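Good morning C.,

I know you're traveling, so I'll keep this short. The sequence:
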Amino acid sequence: MRWIVGLGNPGPAYESTRHNAGFMVVDELAKRWNVSVTPNSKCKGLMGEARIQGEKVALLKPMTFMNLSGESVRGFMDFYKARLEDMIVVYDDLDTETGRIRLRYQGSAGGHNGIKSIIQHVGTQTFNRVRMGISRPKPGVQIVDYVLGTFPKGEQPEVRRMVEEACDAIEFALSHPFEETMAKYNGRGPDKG
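The tokens, ready to paste straight into the viewer:
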């Protein structure tokens, strides 16, 4: 079974914040695949399942709050006997320009608490990721305030496109090696299409 984990914070207060870019992608995939993502106590999150290209694919939104995302990921792995190499984690990234996605299959948490928590709970930095660009805040703006803020109106069309592109990349990754998906989608952006 393949599984897609979108990171974010639960609750209406966080709904369209930059930090919830991962949730936005899972919500869009759920819409595309006509799947409901509902509470699942085994993995402390919201989960849905679909059959895509003949394969079972799970969508997971941890409800543990960002800093404890690893608890949900570990719970899912243990209960469903899921393999780490079948997981793709989607999350917001300050070091990627807004509107762009970057795919990687390993690396440090880079200061992202959700990824830090997952690394702690799975014991490795090697797992597939789709990073959603949110750019860095202007000098003087606290990171925490920035990531918990919403995308300004002017960035909405770009963010929408970025979510679509992340979904396209994930769908492509379901039937192609992740390296091939990286080659196809990295480096693309608002101006390169």
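Safe travels,
E.
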